[in-house]
Amino acid sequence: MRVEATGVSVTIDGTTILDDVSFTAADGRVTGLIGPNGSGKSTLLRCFYRIIRPQQGTVHIGEHDVWRVPARRAGQLRAVVAQDQELDNEYAVRDIVAMGRIPHQRLLERESTADRAIVDEALARARIEWAEARRFVTLSGGERQRVLLARALAQNAPVLLLDEPTNHLDIGAQLELLELIRELGLTTVAALHDLDHAMSYCDAVVLLHHGRVVAADDPVTVLTPQRLADVFGVRGATTTHPLTGRPHLVFAAPPSERELSR
Amino acid sequence: MPSTRRTDRTHPEAARAHLVPDSAVPLLIVLLTVAVVLAAAVAIAVGTVPVPLGDVVAVTWAHLTPGETERSLLYDQIVWDFRAPRVLLAGVAGAGLSVAGVCLQALVRNPLADPYLLGISGGASIGAALALSFVPAAIAGLGVSGAAFLGAVVSVALVVGLAQRAGRVAPGRLILAGVAVAYLGSAVTSYIQLQANPGELRGILFWVLGSVAAASWPDLAAPTVALVVCLLWLLVDGRRLNALTMGETSAAGLGIDVNRLRLGLLAVASLLTATIVSVAGGIGFVGLLVPHAVRLLVGPDHRRVIPVSLLLGAVFLILVDLLSRTLDRPNEMPIGIFTAVLGAPFFLWLLRSQSGAVR
Questions:
Q1: Is B253–A46 a contact, with Cβ atoms under 8 angstroms apart?
Q2: Which parts of the chain are coiled coil (chain A) (predicted)?
Q3: CB contact under 8 A, A155 and B254
């Protein structure tokens, strides 16, 4: 299912966070939202979560306007791996993954055999089934993200939305999670902080700056040295990764005044 | 990565932290239900004039079934007119305050949240203190309960109004607005107390600390109806409460209208607390302690926490009320003193035994 924002503008307390943002994420592809801190990546995702309602414009999943369908229906259309998980909760891993069935259950309906099978499968796909009886608080950061990914998979939604999924993870856990997300084959929109991750794992990227879309295309086309300088204030170049042979970004700080005067 | 291939169900942390296994929860609910009935029967039997348990049952049976039966008029009056409404009000208040505490702790995700978070007791005590002291004539039509209820409603409206931001309930602002209104309420109540004469002062102090001593059958109506209505809604929505405790974004991602759920929880907690406070005063600590104790017992799932909190809160307050009127006979102590004196050590013991089981 396609993910689409059309002319989205968001103003909070007089500050414009998003200004006429439009993008389309193609069906079955991984699309990265990139940009410096404060460029509006998270706010754009929060419009799809139904937490921030755009003052102008619409957000669609497939042909459904996210803000015009019932909340529960939205939970069947897209699953969310967010940044704000409450970490001191006492839930067991399986209980958290089973919450993914909420948008499919009627009031008072109990967990069915089918629900349990879906939860089992989600745990396995996120490779966290070994921890199903553990308490969430006892897991490492990478393991927790896989639990939240499993909960999202249990929602059986065609679209997966992620907000900086690799935040605070060590490098091994980061790469493992990104590989896993790619393997799932879902329509995925992820806000990513690490531009090289965007280069390696995204089919397309949307570059945001000051709440506007600067460019949207495949990563190699978008992440030119000129844009890296204009938007991020760094020198950057694309090389070939010595281990994978794929395009790889390298960065350097802008030249200092002493270097310039030399 | 090899580290993620472990199959460690026997890991020391693998066991759930709560004390009662999931499979034993239905049994716990049955036992607590029996405990509520037994505690109520004993509390009705014990007093300045003891009534044999057999007569308690006989009088209750006579009132609940049609037709005239032979019974002692003295026992009938003690059981049905004095003790039964009082014991039932203690039970309903304990249950309602505990459930309100569960709702507010889920709403603001703060362990210190209790039913008085919304400034309800502050507003209610201004109303009650005014009615009990120098302006009884002005609000004579309302009575103490009516004045307290009015004060509670005004303070909730104020707090919820202040906590809105761009049409959404912001939990952080809710806590701050509630604390501010509570302080304002206690300041005004203190001033009224200073101006009151000694007789009125005792009345106000008793009210502020909470008491079910003066309970009559009509007092029970509003809190009981509120409890039943709120419970029906909560039992249907326990799963959504679970999702909300994982965070706003998680809940929204799971297809829950977070703002509507928060407003619903605010309505439930306010309705329960305001109806109870207006007839029983500011009974403290129950709404803070019982939800925590229950989570230590049965874990965080609200589908278990809500019914167990309801029953445990009822048993606890019935027994505390019994103690408050038997320890220093024939004098009565405000119930709020005992909820803390008895509750705090029990709670600390639970906390210790839980950390022992985990670490």
A1: no
A2: none
A3: yes
CATH assignment of A3-222? 3.40.50.300
Shortest distance, CA A61 to any CA of chain B (angstroms): 13
Q: What is the pLDDT of residues B219-254, one digit of tens each?
A: 899 999 999 999 988 887 788 899 998 888 999 999
Residues in B touching A46 (Cβ below 8 Å): 249
User: Among residues of chain B, what percentage have pLDDT more than 70?
Assistant: 90
Closest CB to B257: pick one of A71, A81, A138: A71
Q: Which of residues 15-74 of A touch B (CB under 8 A)?
A: 46, 49-51, 71-74
The rounded distance, in Å, linking the Cα atoms of B88 and B331 is: 21
| A71, A82, A105: residue with CB nearest B247 | A82
Helices marked H in chain B: 25-45, 53-64, 73-76, 84-108, 120-132, 143-163, 171-195, 198-209, 217-236, 238-244, 248-253, 258-280, 286-298, 302-326, 335-358
Chain A residue at shortest CA distance from B253: A80
Rounded Cα–Cα distance for residues B320 and A57 (Å): 58
Q: Does A99 touch chain B (CB under 8 A)?
A: yes
A95 touching chain B per CB within 8 A: yes
Strands A212-217 and A204-209: antiparallel
Helix extents (H) in A126-218: 141-154, 171-184, 195-201
Domain ranges of chain A: 3-222, 224-262
> What are the structural domains, with CATH classification, of chain B?
85-215+235-358 (1.10.3470.10)
**Which of B7, B9, B253 is nearest residue A79 as measured by Cβ atoms?**
B253
**How far is the C-alpha of A115 from the C-alpha of B33, rounded, in Å?**
31
User: Residue B4: its pLDDT value, please?
Assistant: 43
